[in-house]
Design goal:
Structural class: alpha/beta
Shape: globular
Largest sheet: 8 strands, parallel
Radius of gyration: 17 Å
Number of strands: 8
Strand order of the largest sheet: 6-5-4-3-2-1-8-7
Number of helices: 12
Amino acid sequence: MPVPSNIPRTYLFVPGTRPERFGKALASGADAVILDLEDAVAADDKALARHAIADWFRTASADDQSRTVVRINDAASPWFPDDLSALREVGASCVLLPKAESAQQVAATLAALSGASVLALIESARGVAGVDTVAAAGVSRLVFGTLDFALDLDIEIEDDVSGLAYAASRIAIASRVAGLPAPVAGVTPQLNDRKRLLADLASARALGFGAKLCIHPSQVEPIHTALRPPAEALEW
């Protein structure tokens, strides 16, 4: 089943410390761009990245802002309140909440960013265990953080992703029950391996996922091509 054209198929990460790349990422063809305040930013650079993103929002076009998601730091981190405050000030409309494990975390984010949408990043055993309540807490979409999930469970996914199947199925079913769009699959870290990228996408699609996180612009078009409806479907 094809992914509806108005729902993002690709989300491209950009470190929050690299504002010169923000525009390039938006011009890459990705449906959405994630400006990252979390994993891609060292602790000493959090404030620098936060200011860079806030400054960009003050001058960005409405169209660019509508395609932009900001991955904030998790609710248990010391940077969470400052992230929310800065994004509220510039009117950011969508955030990615990492390490989402409870409805309370979602509620705190929504309360701080009135009118914004929240994507919940499920990337731990606790997150999978609580995914039904997270999905029903007012989020706009679920995202599977496969690398951190594998780290949490101490499983190897370099050559065999079967260890992700149960968690992925839980996330997909929770999305469906909550009436959310099909969830977003995790990254493929092998940058120059198109075969692996498409294999990861096919595995995710087989479990009910409808989009994928990207860490390089070269991953965007192969995903779009793979998710494009066949010619006969378009003609019908």
